[in-house]
Amino acid sequence: MTTATENTNPTFADLGIVEPLCRALSAEGYEHPTPIQARTIPALLNGRDVLGLAQTGTGKTAAFALPILQKLLAGEGRRNPKTAKALILAPTRELAIQIDESLAAYGKHLHLRHTVIFGGVNQGRQVKAMANGVDILVATPGRLLDLMNQKFIHLNDTFTLVLDEADRMLDMGFSRDVKKIIAAMPRKNRQSLLFSATMPTSIEALAADILVDPVRVEVTPEVITVDRIDQHVMFVEQKRKRELLARLLENADLSRVIIFTRTKHCANRVSEQLEKGGIPSEAIHGNKSQGARQRALEAFRSGGARVLVATDIAARGIDVDGITHVINYELPNEPESYVHRIGRTARAGASGIAYSFCDGTERQYLKQIERLTRRTLTVYDVKPLIGDQPSAEFANEPREERRPANGNRNGRGGKPAGQRSGANRPAAGGGNRNSAKPQGNRNHAPKAAGNGPKPTIHGEARGDTGGRPDAISRNRPGSRARKRILGAGE
């Protein structure tokens, strides 16, 4: 394995990107490549496999999309029915849609065909989109394998493979699906790319299996967090977090904010409370339908919603410029998730501010975060904001519902063991708040959706069932992915 070297301040043309693509990039406001683009693009244009260690917000989508578009532009041969020349696998619908939107933006001066398929919607339009074949297919693993098993998609002509956010894909339970998909592709003369934010042993094994003498490109989380984001920790009792959040948001400098929670229930509750306080907000999580999630994103992008409240899985891959602040209402169970969260406010070289609320039960998570980032977070004194006693407005604030830190087997919070399926719920009237539907799960359009452009979703159809990161094969009742659908946590 070789390591790519970095040129000093090159242009996209210097990297060998052709004029139609450079023109599209210029129209999008991109003049100079990010470090991962500068290191990855030349290697891919030379036909090398690439192992990229980078998180969302580093520009990795363009790093693989531009070379793929350029190579397909130069290649010859017609499209064969039900096939794709290049396949990009992503763990969630949101990320898959955004990759497809990026392909549309970068390739608008080309005559290449691409589409996106994902679970949670009717497959009819997706099948139709693949009928005559495409140049690039963006897909989530479950729905792709579903359509492959139904003989609607064949990968025998697919010689370019991208696994984006591979660590999250495997962590969500798609390991077996991914291996089946790769096995259906040609191995000889295939160019493979694997992007991951972390390098656990499972990713090392997968990389060793599918990559041939890859170029390793690494943009470390530590560089991103330390250099560009002003990070603060606020020690506050759980029952006073809402008051602290309200006081922070009185500052107009917090103009576009993402608030992270560990659970869907908490995301709903925080969003509802902000709305009652007159702050336009939307919640996005796995229980929201696909349409509701897209409307929430559009409202946030366009400025119709000042605040987006999100869980880690639902927010993965969200690409919104101009986020001024990230607030960790609940610290994540995993320190890597902290890096992903705060990176939302440091996009493409920008700086940002991150506030993390921490009560006594979350101190262990704070220690893990500081160990990973090799940085002690600056303590922000909350007394000037909320004083020693709750104000009259928050004096009768009920204590926030707490879930056990080890609420499920993979340590990511969520519902306690024994509440992962409807079979384990207590009878009506049993007093278990977790058995009720999350409050405020509004699947209607936001009040002020703005005039922002609506994303083009190739292959989306009516009949949205929502709530799933992808369509899961029904013959896998024991899979971790299926347990997520049954409520094992967000």
- The mean pLDDT is 79
**Strand line-up across the major sheet:** 1-8-2-7-6-3-5-4
How much of the sequence is in beta strands?
A: 5-15%
Tell me the domain tally: 2
End-to-end distance: 36 Å
- Sheet bearing the most strands, described? 8 strands, parallel
Give the overall shape.
globular
Helix content bin: 25-40%
CATH architecture verdict of the largest domain: 3-Layer(aba) Sandwich
The value of Rg in angstroms is 22 Å
How many beta-strand elements?
15
CATH class identity of the largest domain: Alpha Beta
Total number of helices: 18
In the predicted model, the low-confidence regions spanning at least 5 consecutive residues are 400-490
Please name the fourth-level CATH homologous superfamily of the largest domain: P-loop containing nucleotide triphosphate hydrolases
- Supply the helix-strand structural class: alpha/beta
